[in-house]
Amino acid sequence: MTGRDLLPPALLIGLLALVPWATSSNTMLNFLVTVLIVALAAQGWNLLGGFGGQFSFGHAAFFGTGAYATALLQIRGGVNAWIACLIGIAAGGVVGWVIGVLAFRARLRGSYFALVTLAFAEVLRILTNAADFTGGAAGLLLRLDVRPMNFQFASRAVFYWIALVCVAVVLLLTVMIERGRFGAQLAAVRENEEAARALGVDALAVKLRAITLSAAITAAAGCLYTQYFLYLDANIAYGSWISIEALLAAIVGGIGTVAGPVIGALTLHGLGELTKGFAGDITGVDLVLFGLLLVAAIGFAPLGIVGSLRRLRVVRLSGGAR
Amino acid sequence: MITPPHISRRALLGAGAATVALGSPAILRAEPASVKLGILQPVTGALAQDGELGRHGAQLAIDEINAAGGLQALGGAKIEMVFGDARSNPEAATQEVERLQGEGVAAIVGGFASPICLAASQAAARYNLPYIVDVGVSDQIVKRGLTNTFRFAPGFGMVTSVALDNLVKLNDAAGKPAKTVVLVHEDGLFGSGLAKLMQTELPKRGFEILETIAHPTPARDMSNVALRIRSLNPDLVIPSSYYGEFVLLARTMLQQHIRPKGIYCVLNGAASNYRFVREFPEAAAAVMDCNHWADPRNPKAQALKKQVQDAGKLWAYNVPLNYSCVKLVADAISHAGGADRGKIVDALAASTFKDHIMPYGPTRFVNGQNQGAAPVNLQVQDGDIKVIFPTEFADAKPVFPRPA
Amino acid sequence: MYSPEIVLEAVVNGLLTGAVYALVALGLTLVYGVLHIINFAHGALLTCAMFAVWGLATAFGIDPYLAIPPLVLVFFGMGYALQRFVIGPASHGDDNNMLLVTLGLSIAIENGLLAVFHSDTRGLEGDAAFQVVQLGPMLISRAKLIGFAGALLVAALLWLLLTTTDTGKAIRAVAREKLGARLVGIDVRHIYAVTFGLGCACLAVAACLLMPTYYVNPRVGNAFVLVAFTIVVLGGMGSVPGALLGGLFIGVVESMSGLFLGDSLGQLGIFVIFILVLLLRPTGMFGAKA
């Protein structure tokens, strides 16, 4: 059981790690770096939304905090990029905890929780867009200074591997959580909070741990974004696009599964690139196709990709037994 | 240094043509390998409208060059457009830069919005791939020391200082009727950046700023902004907004009978837009704008404008800017003698190109910024958009203060 | 800082704008209350309706107000079909999937409009936008007054429909207890589709009332969605009077915070109030049960 659980994610990461040797195409690497950043954000979302059952529409709040903290510490504080990233991740976790305390103490759940996270992200977006300290609407530009010490690399492959390591670490973490006591508590809270509480689970503490960890992971994606693109503004960091990307990748890949977010991000962005090829001369046709394919995919694989594969296997196994 | 990847294709084409068209060697000689040019514009997403205009401008220039027999210096090589949709966000833009790089383009033109230009030019810098910014007005773009990045048009600093100088001239010539100002700006990079510069510069030139009003894009309603303007009753309103919001504002002001002595826009999305002028002539009348614009006295610009309008398309500043940028790159490629990037970058840096249709004079790049680039002042007069400043390019006289 | 007349006028403006927000929110709250989904396609469908109004006015010279009856029918049918044949089957009755399906639809619709109408921003020509009614010292846009009255009327009609007709009772039954409703013989899928159709019909009215003073481009609907969500939560999900009051309230909040903080930071007012209401009184200000 344990070996089988670990094998698919390990295979996935192993395969991805080989890509820079298989292709010298920077188009591919650049594409995959973006995918990995989204995947990381989605992994964070999945921990809270998938395993914890608390749907957030506002993971941009954490992504943006990680991104802005990383950039601000370097620009305003002269902090080393690597240390800035670590602080950025912690800052994301803190914001997650604060929002968690406010929202979970007020017993918000379901759509209410989703919308309050969205509102927090919007508040942060409006504030960073207006404040001089955060560069206002002009955003923040990190100085291009390609040195490993600065978390900037001449080779795209190196950055790609670093992003991949982040994703792999979170995969491992997710497997450990899923199998551990914390995972069981999360599942209990997700399925029936009252029952979990009756069994002696401190639901509030469990949810707070989940949102803090989830936020820190998504903040890490924000840090990577900053270091890769070296430019930020309020709409990039706190815009709803990343909240939607994160939940979309997690749900399409397979909500509450270990590898779901990574597979979902790969599939969605792969699909996006693929439909670009069909665009023809009329603007927007590719995205129409993308939207329709998304609808069709959900129609045919309602459990997400990982969930549907799993179900296929179960059906085949039971069929074989008969 | 860099081998153009299309050489093998050229050999193939040549061989194929030789077998098919045995009787006409002239055709063979007239078909040298085409030069690929990357055009990057956001044609989907929030900036789609501007992206489409930019693509159209680039297309016009490429068609014209090819119709005239291609690049003469390269034996009549045609330019082939490789288009990339930046999808109105920086991530998609860099992905397209990588793709264009993979397709072997000689240079990239476009970007439109500053965040897109910042990300895309940096991605292109990895390959020393020449990147010509079409609009992106953020002054950060040319202050990063990227040798591959060139901006043909003026940036914020330049636009604001010209706008202010001309405002003072305008006001002085009319006997200084305007003293008080209300600034209205969209809260993104462009509007906020301008407002900040204005706030420090306007008081130095004797204007009193009564209030600075920021609004989001998209805005659902402009009644409040109009209301505040009415209560402050300024001589002058200076708005910097995108199309939809300015149209709302101008309409609401007209509706509320708010008639300042002048509406003086800076880099406004609507004031120099023929659609606005046509759809709301009353609201648009006498509105002034300091913006990018083609040289109205340039016969080629006039011809192009006619061509665009006859085709039922919109003539906005993106069109002549992208047209001119493509022409500029084509000239640099000719001087470089091929698709060698290092040589194209050198040719751009040294270029004194004057065959464009903007009121800039010959190009002269310092740290990637075209020094001659400047905006002009426009005014809506009799259902048309006229240039009122500077006088050497003007085709009309300013009407200020606006008649009641 | 401001004279009382200005403040009064801002309040009136807020009420007028808020009424149209309420109309957009009405469709959303109905779908929300019955299907329990956050309909991401709501904005794209509003854009669709606005383009329909613009198209009818530009191509055939049909007055936007006269376009209300046909568009209401068309959009009701479209919404019914969308839910019955696309959203329902594709999402297999799962809430997460409904969310994704509506998200996919919104991407498809928005870009479909982009492909057909291109990215230009368009408005209705003519002087309807400039007609004003003088009310004391205030000049009030006639189109906005009509919008206000229209929104109130639609809310009243919708409320009557929900409380007095059999379909309305069935809708409320499904909203409250899906399983029970099915047991007493209500066709839940049909009711879902009717609800979605009604939501779209509200959007059609909103579009007709908006277009005389607003503009349309393929992304314009997004501007209204977030604020509509806010109103739905404030009013209590699924509550018609709640959506109406919530809309008017948000309109005034936006107007006042816009007046005193500027329109950019003014948006902050909406979200802060939203968060406070959620944290302090999550059932909404107007009481409907969560």
Provide structural commentary:
The complex is a heterotrimer of chains A (322), B (404) and C (290). Chain A has a single domain (2-259), classed as Orthogonal Bundle (ABC transporter involved in vitamin B12 uptake, BtuC). Chain A is 78% helix and 1% strand. Chain A contains 14 helices and 2 strands, in the order αααααβααααβααααα. In chain A, α2 (26-51) crosses α11 and α12 runs antiparallel to α13. Chain A is globular and about 55 Å long. The two termini of chain A are 22 Å apart. Chain B has 404 residues and is an alpha/beta fold. Chain B has 2 domains: 32-154 and 299-373, Rossmann fold (3-Layer(aba) Sandwich); 157-291 and 377-389, 3-Layer(aba) Sandwich (Rossmann fold). Chain B has helices at residues 7-20, 25-29, 48-67, 90-102, 114-125, 156-173, 189-204, 223-232, 243-255, 274-279, 281-284, 299-310, 318-336, 341-349; strands at 35-41, 79-85, 108-110, 131-133, 149-151, 180-186, 208-215, 236-240, 262-266, 288-291, 365-366, 369-370, 376-381, 384-389. A 7-stranded mixed sheet of chain B has the order 7-6-8-9-10-13-14, with helices on both faces. A 5-stranded parallel sheet of chain B has the order 2-1-3-4-5, with helices on both faces. Chain B has a two-stranded antiparallel ribbon with strand order 11-12. In chain B, α7 (189-204) links the parallel β6 (180-186) and β7. Chain B is elongated. Chain C has 290 residues and is mainly alpha-helical. Chain C has a single domain (4-280), classed as ABC transporter involved in vitamin B12 uptake, BtuC. Chain C has a two-stranded antiparallel ribbon with strand order 1-4. In chain C, strands 2-3 form a two-stranded antiparallel ribbon. In chain C, α5 runs antiparallel to α8 (188-210). The longest helix of chain C has 32 residues, at 4-35. Chain C is globular, with a radius of gyration of 19 Å. The model of chain C has no long low-confidence stretch (mean pLDDT 88). Chains A and C meet through α5, α11 and α13 of A and α3, α4, α9 and α11 of C.
Defining traits:
heterotrimer; A: 322 residues; mainly alpha; ABC transporter involved in vitamin B12 uptake, BtuC; two-stranded antiparallel ribbon; 14 helices; 78% helix; 1% strand; globular; B: 404 residues; alpha/beta; Rossmann fold; 2 domains; 7-stranded mixed beta sheet; 5-stranded parallel beta sheet; disordered N terminus
